[in-house]
C-alpha cells in the first residue's frame, strides 16, 4: 500500500556536466515527490536524464544545484563520509550487472555488505527474505552455478537485507532473458506489495514499466509526463 508521505523529494535539482561549449544539462530543475510503498518507474530515451536523476536521488552523483531529500534527510547537504554511511543504511541497489563475487556463495554475497559494515544480521529476516525470493535451496551455490535470474535474485536479497528506505534499480533486467526478466520484476513488485518497499526503477522497456504503480517520463533533462498506472 502506498504511503502518501514522500520517501524521496527533489526540489529544483539540476546536474550540469562540462563547461563552455561542452556544457550539458543532464537534469534540469526537476522537482518531484516519490511516495513510500510505491513502485515508480522512470523512463525516457537515451540522454533524457533518467539515469542521472536516479544517481542523484541515490547519492551516487552530486547535484549542481537544488536539493534531494531521502527518508527525511537532505542528502545534498551531506559530506562524502556521512553520505556513504547514509547510503549503506538507507538505500539498496540493484544494477544491470549482478556485481556478485564469483568465489563466494549466494549466502556470502547476500551477507557481505552487512558484515563489512560491522552490522548484525537478522537471521529470521534473512531466512524469510531468501525464502520469499526462492533462494533457500541456492544459498550454497556460487554465481557460476546459478542462472542469470537466480543471480539477480541474490542481488535483490542483498539489497533488501538491511530493510532500506528505498530500493534503487537501474535497468535490473537488462542482462536477462524474457522469462528471467519477468521473475525479477515480479519479485520487485512483490517487495512493494508484501513488504511495503519503496522501489524506483529506471527502464527503457514498456513491459518492465507495466509492473510499476507510476511512470515518470523524462526528456531533455525534464519530466514531461507523470502518471499512475491503472489499479495502482
Tell me about this structure.
The model has no long low-confidence stretch (mean pLDDT 91). This protein has helices at 50-57, 80-90, 106-116, 123-132, 148-160, 178-195, 206-209, and strands at residues 3-17, 24-36, 39-43, 65-70, 73-74, 91-95, 166-170, 199-202, 214-219, 222-228. Strand 7 (166-170), helix 6 (178-195) and strand 8 form a beta-alpha-beta unit. With 232 residues, the protein is α/β, with parallel strands linked by helices. It has seven helices and ten strands. The strands form two sheets. The chain has a six-stranded mixed sheet, with helices on both faces. A four-stranded antiparallel sheet has the order 2-1-4-5, with helices on one face.
Please give a handful of descriptors for the protein shown.
10 strands, 232 residues, four-stranded antiparallel β-sheet
Summarize the structure.
By secondary structure, the protein is of the alpha/beta class.
Average residue pLDDT: 91
Q: What percent of residues are in strands?
A: 25-35%
Major beta sheet summary: 6 strands, mixed
Assign an overall shape: globular
| Main β-sheet, spatial strand arrangement | 6-7-8-3-9-10
Q: How much helix, percentage-wise, in residues? A: 25-40%
The gyration radius over C-alpha positions equals 17 Å
Low-confidence stretches: none
SSE arrangement:
Layout: E1 3-17, E2 24-36, E3 39-43, H1 50-57, E4 65-70, E5 73-74, H2 80-90, E6 91-95, H3 106-116, H4 123-132, H5 148-160, E7 166-170, H6 178-195, E8 199-202, H7 206-209, E9 214-219, E10 222-228
Parallel strand pairs: 3-8, 3-9, 6-7, 7-8
Antiparallel strand pairs: 1-2, 1-4, 4-5, 9-10
Amino acid at each position: 500500500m502506498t504511503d502518501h508521505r514522500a520517501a524521496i523529494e527533489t526540489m529544483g535539482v539540476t546536474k550540469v556536466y562540462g563547461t563552455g561549449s561542452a556544457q550539458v544539462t543532464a537534469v534540469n530543475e526537476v522537482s518531484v515527490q516519490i511516495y513510500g510503498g510505491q513502485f515508480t518507474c522512470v523512463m525516457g530515451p537515451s540522454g533524457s536524464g533518467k539515469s542521472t536523476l536516479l544517481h542523484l536521488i541515490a547519492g551516487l552523483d552530486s547535484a549542481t544545484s537544488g536539493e534531494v531529500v531521502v527518508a527525511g534527510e537532505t542528502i545534498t547537504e551531506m559530506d562524502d563520509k556521512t553520505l556513504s554511511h547514509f547510503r549503506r543504511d538507507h538505500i539498496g541497489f540493484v544494477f544491470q550487472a549482478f556485481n556478485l563475487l564469483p568465489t563466494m556463495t549466494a549466502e556470502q554475497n547476500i551477507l557481505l555488505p552487512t558484515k563489512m559494515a560491522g552490522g548484525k544480521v537478522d537471521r529470521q529476516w534473512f531466512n524469510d527474505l531468501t525464502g520469499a525470493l526462492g533462494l533457500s535451496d541456492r544459498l550454497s551455490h556460487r554465481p557460476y552455478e546459478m542462472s542469470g535470474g537466480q543471480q539477480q535474485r541474490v542481488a535483490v536479497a542483498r539489497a533488501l537485507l538491511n530493510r532500506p528506505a528505498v530500493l534503487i534499480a537501474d535497468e535490473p533486467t537488462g542482462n536477462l532473458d524474457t522469462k528471467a526478466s519477468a521473475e525479477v520484476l515480479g519479485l520487485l513488485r512483490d517487495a512493494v506489495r508484501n513488504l511495503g518497499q519503496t522501489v524506483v526503477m529506471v527502464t527503457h522497456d514498456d513491459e518492465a514499466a507495466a509492473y510499476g504503480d507510476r511512470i515518470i517520463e523524462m526528456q531533455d533533462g525534464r519530466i514531461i509526463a507523470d502518471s499512475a498506472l491503472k489499479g495502482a
